[in-house]
Amino acid sequence: MNQIAKPWPALWALVIGFFMILVDSTIVSIANPAIMRDLNADFTAVIWVTSAYLLAYAVPLLITGRLGDRFGPKRVYLIGLAIFTLASLACGLSGDIGMLIAARAVQGLGAALMTPQTMAVITRIFPPNQRGAAMGFWGAVAGVATLVGPILGGLLVDSLGWEWIFFVNLPVGIVAFIVAWRLVPNLETHSHSFDWLGVVLSAIGMFLLVFGIQEGASYDWGTIVGPITVWGLIISGIVVLVVFVVWQRFNRAEPLLPLGLFKDRNFALSNVAISVVGFAITAMPLPLAFYFQVARGLEPTQAALMLVPMAVISGVLAPLVGKFSDRLDPKWIAFTGFAFITLALGLYAVLITPDVALWLLLLPSALLGVGMSGIWAPLASTATRNLPRAQAGAGSGVYSMTRQLGSVLGSAAIAALLTARLAAELPGFDAADQASAHAGGALPPELVAGYSAAMSQSLVLSAVGFGICAVVVLFLAKPKITVAWGDAPKAEVPAASVPATADADH
C-alpha cells in the first residue's frame, strides 16, 4: 500500500506513453502531403493511415479496460507499450501505403491496450478529492498531445522526413517502459468474463460504418461491387451496432459494454460530450494543414508554427483548470471552454481566404488554446468520479472508447466532406489534380480561392461539433459530495479505504 500512498510518480510514468499515443492520433495530418508524394498514394488512401490507427484503437477499448481489471493495469499497459513501440518502427520502415496502413493498425491495437489503464489507475489510486487535480494533469497531457501532434509532425517532416514521426517513438517508448515498470504499482485484480461476441459485433459494425462514410465519395455514393453499395454498408454498420447494444442489454453473463454505468447522468452525458469532442478535434487539423500548405504554400514546419499559440496556451492553462475543477461546478468550466473553441473555429472559417494576413490566423489559434484547456479535466473527472473500484477499468474503457469512436467517425466524415466541398468549389479540379496538389504540386493561382473556400467550409463541421458539446455539458448535474470531498488527503490512509459515493454502484 506504500506505493499507492504516492500516486503522482505512477501517474507521471503512465502519461509519458499516453502522451506518445495521443500525439500519434494527429501527427500524421501535417505529414499527409509528404506521405502522398513519397508513397505515391491518393487522397483517400492517405486518410486511411489515420483511420486505420483510430479504428484499431477504438474497437478493442471496451475489452482492454476489462483486461486491465483482470490481469492488472500495469501488466496490460506494458504489453500495449511494447506493441506500440515495435509497430512504430514498422511504420517508419514502410515502403508502400498498404504496409504503412497495416502497421498503423497494429499501433492502434497497442494504444488500445494502454489508454484505459491510465484512467483506471487515476480512479483507483487517487482519493476523490484529489482526482480533479490528477485529471487536470491527465487532461493537460491529452489536450496538449492532440495539439502538439501537427506541430511536432511539421518539424520532423521538414528536418528528417515523414518516417521520423514514427521513429521518434522508439526512444520515448523505451523510456516510458522503464519508468512505468519501476513506478506504477501492481494493483489488485478483479475477475471478469469476456464477451467475445460483443467484440466481433462492435468491430464489424464500426468497420462497415467507417468504410462506407470514408470511401463513399470514391464510389460516387453508389455501387462498390455487385450488390454491395456504399449506403448498404453504412446502414448495415448501424444495424450491427444496434444489435451489439441489444446484445449488451440481454447478455446474462458480463456484458462488454456495462449499460448500468449509464444510469449515472454525469457518466452518460460526459460520454456523449467526449465522443463529439473526438469527432470534432479529429476533423479540425486536416483542413487547416491543407489550407496552410496547399493554398498558402507554407512548408510543414511553417504550417505547424501557426498552431503554436493553441498548444502553448492549452498546456499552461489545463493544469490550473484541473485544480479548479475540484472546487467549482465543472459544467461551467467545460461550457466556457467549448464556447471559446466554437468561437475560434467560427473565426477561422471567416478568416480563411487566399490573401488573409497570416498573423491574423494566430488569433483563433490562441482562442482555441484557451478553450481546449477547459474541456479535458472537467469531462474526465465528472465521468469517472463515481466509478466503483471494481469497474474502474470497464468505465475507463467505455469513456476512452467513446472518444475514439468519435475520432474514427470524425476522420471518415472530414475525408468525405473535404472531397465533396472540393468538387463543389472546383468542379474542373479532378482527382488527379487533387492528388498532385496535396502531394506538393503547385496549385494554379486561379484555383486558390475555391480551394480556400472548401477548407473554410470544412472547418464548420468541427465548429458545429464543439457547439453541440457546449449544449450537452449544460445538463451535467453538480457532482455529489463524497465523505472525503474537500478534506486534506491523509498520506497514511491508502486510497483503497476512501469511502465510495452513494451512487458508486451505478
TrEMBL record:
Residues 10-481 form the Major facilitator superfamily (MFS) profile domain. This is Multidrug MFS transporter. It comes from the Bacteria. Belongs to the major facilitator superfamily. EmrB family. The chain crosses the membrane at residues 12-31, 43-64, 76-95, 134-152, 164-184, 196-213, 225-247, 268-291, 303-320, 332-351, 357-379, 405-424, 459-477. The keyword Transmembrane helix applies. It is a multi-pass membrane protein. It is found in: Cell membrane. NCBIfam families: efflux_EmrB. Keywords: Cell membrane, Membrane, Transmembrane, Transmembrane helix, Transport. It comes from Microterricola viridarii. InterPro entries: EmrB-like (IPR004638), MFS (IPR011701), MFS_dom (IPR020846), MFS_trans_sf (IPR036259).
